[in-house]
Design goal:
mainly alpha, ABC transporter involved in vitamin B12 uptake, BtuC, 371 residues, single chain, 14 helices
């Protein structure tokens, strides 16, 4: 049976399990009470994150309430801003899923940024080479395949280094980000530089037919639909397939997985390949749906934001996508702060860090209380 096949249906539980289940029901109210308390505390920690961010804004000479108003206005209070948030969330969510999949096997993929870049680079190479000589759908598929392969290779290198040489994948994936950026800069400064760019380092733009079409006359494009489909497929692979189950076993206890006869190295490498391909597709969708050509900073540090989003979503695909939308809105709101108050837009990174730290603080508090 393939490791990608659905899990077999569960058999009826033994009588002892049924008895234990009935006993546990007696404590359902207490469990619900504890769960409600934890939810309330989590909400309080998030409120505290915004309060601390307000203090940072105040220390920089800005009115905190005005700052929050500008953030809302530039991110979620008008249709155009919402569409931009969704568009920016496409590469972030796919790069976050690239973190979530290896995390199930106990790996730390910090290379989403580099994998996004390499996906965009490969897609640019194919898209520019094809030009307008083929129909749009064929160009999209070709660029998507190239982006996925490039991202998979970039992540797979770290997977092989981990399994064959014992190299720490968190370090190697992080270093690969800088290599990927240098590769892109070399290409757009030298062989791929657009001759009509007025001196700006950028590649030749994609042909109109190679650009993803808009949805219903909005700013949104086909890439949003593709990203949603990929998120659902990722959820299925992690939650419902034998491959996903095997990843969880390896991530939970490698020794037990080894005794069970699971191919640990193959599972580790495959998780990196799948994760890298998702990030590579994110780079392709960002290129073909929004940017249309390679430029310095094309990913705008999406890969690092995605890493935080995956950890905030606890590597669950659905939660990761939601976290990516939230982080996309916060990142985009930096423009409103810069225009309205003259502050550096990167100040929103402080808020991102505080939001990620909130559940970590709560987890430490809960463990301390349990002792």
């Amino acid at each position: 049976m393939s490791i990608f096949s659905p899990l077999a249906p569960k058999q009826d539980p033994p009588l002892d399990d049924l008895v234990n289940h009935e006993v546990e029901k007696k404590f359902s109210w207490s469990n619900l009470y504890r769960s409600s308390n934890m939810t309330f505390l989590l909400i309080l920690t998030y409120i505290g994150s915004f309060f601390l961010f307000g203090l940072v804004a105040l220390a920089r000479g800005a009115n905190p309430f005005g700052v929050f108003g500008a953030m809302l206005q530039s991110s979620v209070l008008n249709v155009g801003s919402i569409e931009q948030v969704i568009l920016r969330a496409v590469p972030i969510s796919l790069a976050a899923l690239a973190v979530a999949v290896p995390a199930r096997a106990g790996l730390v993929n910090v290379g989403g940024e580099g994998q996004l870049i390499m996906g965009a680079v490969a897609a640019t190479g194919i898209g520019v080479a094809i030009g307008a000589s083929v129909p749009g759908p064929i160009a999209w598929v070709a660029m998507a395949v190239a982006g996925a392969i490039a991202g998979a290779i970039w992540a797979g290198i770290s997977g092989v280094l981990r399994t064959k040489m014992g190299a720490n994948e968190a370090v190697t994936t992080l270093l690969m980000n800088f290599v990927a950026n240098d590769v892109m800069l070399y290409l757009i400064y030298q062989p791929w530089r657009d001759k009509f760019s007025s001196g700006q380092p950028q590649s030749q733009p994609l042909a109109q037919s190679a650009q993803l079409p808009a949805l219903f006359g909005s700013q949104l494009n086909l890439g949003v639909v593709i990203a949603l489909v990929l998120a659902v497929v990722t959820w299925y692979l992690i939650r419902k397939s034998h491959w996903g189950f095997a990843l969880r076993v390896v991530g939970g206890n490698q020794e037990a997985a080894r005794r069970a006869g699971l191919p640990i190295n193959k599972l580790l490498i495959s998780s990196m390949l799948v994760g890298g391909s998702l990030a590579g597709l994110g780079g392709m969708l960002n290129l073909a749906g929004l940017e249309y050509q390679l430029v310095p900073g094309i990913t705008a540090s999406f890969g690092y934001v995605a890493f935080l989003a995956s950890w905030l979503g606890r590597h669950d695909p659905i939660k990761v996508v939601v976290a990516s939308l939230v982080f996309s809105a916060i990142a985009l709101s930096g423009n409103g702060i810069q225009l309205g108050f003259g502050l550096d837009g990167s100040i929103v990174d402080v808020l991102l860090a505080l939001i990620v730290m909130a559940p970590l603080f709560l987890s430490k508090t809960r463990k301390a209380a349990a002792k």
